[in-house]
Description:
The protein is mostly helical.
Amino acid sequence: MISLHDVYEQGNEAVKEAVLAFGARHPIEPATANPEPDWKRAEKHFTHLIEVIMGAAAPVQADVTATVRRAENETVQLLLALRPLPDYRCPICVKQSWYPL
């Protein structure tokens, strides 16, 4: 499965901005003026998003690699769609606040 770091490295400027925006949604210390992203948590949530999208993929493809690649692409598209929204929250963070793990 592709990593958030790889998406950043391989992406164009819009993708890079989307990855940085997603990272910013996972601050280490939210109360500070310019919080640093918690990249470990952002990476974990990115992978979880891929898994959620992959689980919802229909129809199920015989080729698992194609299903994973499709889910990865859809997850990147989600990050791109959310990027211009100033106050969006990570969907995984929101889910976890509703249903603590």
